[in-house]
Design a protein that fits this description.
- Helix content is 4%, strand content 59%.
- With 656 residues, it is mainly β.
- The chain is globular.
- The protein starts with a helix and ends with a strand.
- One of its GO terms (biological process) is siderophore transmembrane transport.
Length: 656
Amino acid sequence: MSATLAALLAAQEIVVTGQGLGATKGDAAFDVVSIDRNRIETSASGRMEDILRDAAGFQQFRRSDSRSAHPTSQGATLRGLGGNASTRALVLLDGVPMVDPFGGWIGWAALDPARIGHIRVTRGGGTGASGPGALAGTIELTSARPDQIGPVSASIAYGSRDSIDADATVGLKLAGGYAILSAGHAQGDGFIPIIEQQRGIVDRAARYRQSRASARAVMSLGETTELQANGSVLVDRRDRGLPGTGNGNLAVDSSLRLVGRGDWAWEAASWLQLREFSSGFAAANAVRTTVNRSLDQYRVPATGYGGRFEIRPPLGDQLTLRLGGDARRVTGRTQETVLATGVDRRAGGRQDVLGAFADASFEADPKLVLTASGRFDHWSIDHGYISEFSPVTGLPTANGRPFADRSGDETTARGGIAWSPLGALTVRGAAYTGWRLPTLNELYRPFRAGNDSTQANAALQPERVKGIDGGFDFHPLPGWRMGVTVFENRLEDAIANVTVAANTRQRQNLDAIRSRGIELDAEASWREWHGMISWSHTSAKVRGKGAALALDGMRPAQTPRDQGSATLEWRRAGFRAATTVRYVGKQFEDDLNRLTLDDAVTVDAVIGVPIGRGFTAELRAENLGNARIEATRSTDGLIERATPRTLWFALRYAAR
């Protein structure tokens, strides 16, 4: 082959990335935590929600993970803006929202770490170009590339309580692109949620069985255009430790994204979410010898779909401008039987959001970057209803209640500055506003947990946040970083479960939740060693009036004051060892701050030994000290726990 022909072929070579258009220089103004592939692979639990706790301040409504928690309790938030189970952070996979269309929780079991290449957590609300919903921050998951996975990787693990966890991923190079296929399965006998001192004969282990599969294709459509297609399915079955409390979730997600990397860079995406959820609810008597089933939520279908477009005009190296819009629609309903009365209840509705955004980053000089963005969103809530029927005759037992259609407009903005007076030091500050619609679940569906019931509220207003933060990032050496951030947020019209009678709460808009605090993140690498520390201290208070006046000055439910995580890892010639210590402070189960969940310290550990031909033997331990992690406490003093000590032996294979 002649040198001229070789040069021509090299010039025509097209590289596909599988990524979106990427971050801008203005992102240096915000508090960002990155979790790389190496760290993802050394998690003792192999659970995404556990890995995210490396960014202190991240929390779910409950401390349990997706093996034992009720799926509806697994919302995500940051910076102490908790208080209910809906997600107050925007969670994205390859730019596509992953929040459940009906309930606002996250199907963490579908987000298999084996297929994730990078995680980026931005603390602080307002997103501009990424869409609405980021009251507390944004969690961006990016799929792994073939060079991160290899042609074939697989693992199988056997653990405590007859648990099995298996994954397999295949990376295929195609003409002009690549494809990645992934599948996984997890099951186990589970542990008994109720603590030992309070158990009765009706208490049993909370079994789980979860299967997932995904496919991703990335291909070139020309010299500057790339197509990315994703599809995934999750079948999730869990038990809550009592007869009649099984639940199931079928989740199907698909998306298409086109990325143009020419002079006029652009990106267009569309997505579809299909959900089918079911759950049983029951309560035991005081001595836990009998169980009364209270509710059969036998069918909850929900659909979410939308699209997004962005364009970046060529304005030179100093200025990046992002212009675009997005649209989303969610529909869903619950179909359930109230067993105490024999009434069949149906409730649901529809929501639409149409938005436009502009985002600009300006490098005033090599040491100073300014950024500003704004959004305008129009929302509507319509077709809301609740109806009750006799399951025998099909006739109404009460007049159905259609709720009035509503709509409104929201204008939000975010701005920041990053100044680097020294090459290793960046001083930053940001201010932002954001908003979130109440979910269909919050608006229309009452529920019961044990002996405690919570009423829906179709009149809920959107939540709105105002916040400011500032801090610095210091990079003294390659692989060394320390970041410190102080922040203050005010979440207005915060939706909370407010006590209105004994054992009864109602979802209401509080006047506000005020949250202020400090976050510290540090990491360092030295030869074979790598260490990470993350800590957050949050002072969060409720501002209540009217029916919620009794909550004024209280800490929001399920919101710890302190959280921390520290990891030390060692790697050499295929050998690896890592240990992680986590701390979560005391928090209150309830809005009145009468029920305390104790603090907890847990230790995880991983040891991997190469045994040849691409195989590695691995020992993993979750909660090595078997600390009691209190997950719930009922008004009658009943305590549920999260994951006890769990030991694993795993065999991994990676072809390179």
